[in-house]
Amino acid sequence: MFSNVSNFSLSFSCLVLHSAFSDIYDEDHFIKTLEGHVKVARELPQELMERYGFNFSNIPNFHIEAWAPASKYLEVVYPVLQEQKVIRIAPFANRLAMNIPPHVQFLRCLSNYEALRFSFPISTLAMILVDRMRHNSSSSYGKYVSIHLRFEEDMVAFSCCVYDGGQAENREMNLIREKGWGEKFKRKDRIISPGLNRINGRCPMTPLEVGLMLRGMGFSNNTAIYLASGKLYQADKYLAPLQKMFPLLHTKESLTTPEELTALQGYSSRLAALDYMVCLFSEVFVTTQGGNFPHFLMGHRRFLHSGHAKTIKPDKSKMVLLLQNTSISWEAFKDQMELMVAESDRKGVMVSRVGKSNRKTSVYSKPFPECRCLWESQNLKLDH
């Protein structure tokens, strides 16, 4: 696999970084790691920038369909790049298929798990938080649980779910939806079905629901928990039950001084990177909603632990039925939670079966077997 990696460099002459990249990632490390595979340029040559009026948006955009095969870039994109010397691809997410040649897949592994490293300010503060979490969980030998809780105001609004059901909530959520969706929100054919959304497991879990789930799964009230989240919707009201169930509940704000967070405040991506790192080193990671954060984090944890990182991904549709069942006993609820965590464990250690062209799952969330040789090379270096 390693011997074929250099072939991929033919399909890209350079990758241009925007200034924001270095705010989050270690740019020098990224460039150095990809040397010999991809030539990374910090900025475009002067003559190219002059051609487009020193404005990236003036560069003709090359639209690539989602999950395009590698052949699309070699046969269609690369000839245009050779002729024009520069192209812009937008949107850029999910533009490459999961089933790609091994040497290209290796480059994807190399980029994700070795080249991309958070910047020094972020990684330094993150490891301070990890140490503080381990200290706060000394009764469990430094092991703590991390929860990615998506209960921010915008998540609650755009999920089109109802929580306390009051008129004040309805007015507040409608204002946010109208601001975000514009005229689409006022369309007569738009139907909002909160009940159906909840039954289908599309509603963000409340802190109370997460707490009940964890207690049902056997986590005691002396479990140290790190809560990764943005600003929660009505935090004083909704967070209190979770804090009561788990007194050792911490956030990046509670673990740091205002001075320590100053450099990251106001930058949501940098704060999310901080949460990511603390979750990465937790004993257990709990994801309560979809999105890129848990998707990539699950894969990163599996990569670090050779596929054996514990992740709890609840069946939210089943959770709704259990929580709405007012006649269920606590013992029966606990039995159901034990079955749910056992199923989550079973799925968490499954390794994708990959043939020549049949990967059906994301390599970002399940990096093995394709990223196995990179993992082995990294651990060989550690052993020596």
UniProtKB/TrEMBL annotation:
A GO term for molecular function: glycosyltransferase activity
Full protein name: O-fucosyltransferase family protein
Residue stretches spanning the membrane: none
Signal peptide: 1-22
A Gene Ontology biological process term: fucose metabolic process
Similarity section: Belongs to the glycosyltransferase GT106 family.
Keywords: Carbohydrate metabolism, Fucose metabolism, Glycosyltransferase, Signal, Transferase
